C-alpha cells in the first residue's frame, strides 16, 4: 500500500528535551523529523505530537518548533500512546487510516504505539531515519519487531514522494527546492 496525504496523519512520539541528548545520532534523527514534519505541514497533513510526562522529561525539542506550533499535543504517561483515552479520541477525530510515526525511543514508546495502532487496524508507516534510541541495537530490534507486527518500514523520502505522487506540480517544485536538506 502507498501513502496518500489526504488519508494520513503524522505522529511525533516523545521527541523531548531530556530524552533527545541521549539518542544515538540525535542530530540526524531530529533533522529528518523536522524535514518530514515541514513537508507534512506544506501538504496539509495533520500533525499530532505526544509528550511522555513533560513535567519530568521536558517538552518537545525546540528544533521542531514550526511543527509544534501547528500540531495538537497530547500528554501521556503510558508508553503506548494508544493506551491514553485522550490520544484515542484525537486520532479518531482525524478520521484518517494511515499514520506515519516518528520519534523517540524507537524500542519503547514508538514501538508500543505503532504495534497498538496496527492492532487497531490503522496502516502504520515507520520512516526509520526519523526514529532514535540510545543504543543502535535497540532501534534495529524494534524495527524488526514492528515489521513482524505489520508496520510498514519506510524512509522519510519514501513518505514525501508518496504524498507528492508526481513531479511537475507547483507543490513539488516548492518542496524540491529544499530536497537535499
From TrEMBL:
Keyword terms of this UniProt record: Hydrolase
InterPro entries found in the cross-reference section: Isochorismatase-like_dom (IPR000868), Isochorismatase-like_sf (IPR036380), Isochorismatase_domain (IPR050993)
GO molecular function, one term: hydrolase activity
Keyword Hydrolase listed: yes
Domain Isochorismatase-like: 9-157
Protein's recorded name: Hydrolase
Species the sequence originates in: Idiomarina fontislapidosi
Taxonomic placement: Bacteria, Pseudomonadati, Pseudomonadota, Gammaproteobacteria, Alteromonadales
Amino acid at each position: 500500500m502507498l501513502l496518500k496525504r489526504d488519508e494520513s496523519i503524522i505522529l511525533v512520539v516523545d521527541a523531548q528535551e531530556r530524552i533527545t541528548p541521549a539518542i544515538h545520532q540525535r542530530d540526524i534523527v531530529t533533522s529528518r523529523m523536522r524535514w518530514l514534519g515541514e513537508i507534512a505541514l506544506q501538504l496539509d497533513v495533520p500533525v499530532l505530537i505526544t509528550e511522555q510526562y513533560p513535567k519530568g522529561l521536558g517538552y518537545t525539542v525546540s528544533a521542531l518548533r514550526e511543527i509544534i506550533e501547528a500540531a495538537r499535543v497530547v500528554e501521556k504517561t503510558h508508553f503506548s500512546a494508544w493506551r491514553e483515552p485522550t490520544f484515542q479520541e484525537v486520532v479518531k477525530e482525524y478520521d484518517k487510516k494511515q499514520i506515519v510515526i516518528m520519534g523517540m525511543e524507537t524500542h519503547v514508546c514508538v514501538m508500543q504505539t505503532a504495534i497498538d495502532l496496527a492492532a487497531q487496524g490503522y496502516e502504520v508507516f515507520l520512516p526509520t531515519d526519523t526514529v532514535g534510541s540510545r543504543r543502535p541495537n535497540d532501534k534495529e530490534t524494534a524495527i524488526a519487531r514492528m515489521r513482524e507486527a505489520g508496520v510498514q518500514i519506510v524512509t522519510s523520502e519514501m513518505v514525501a514522494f508518496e504524498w507528492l505522487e508526481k513531479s511537475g506540480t507547483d507543490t513539488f517544485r516548492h518542496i524540491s527546492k529544499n530536497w537535499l536538506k
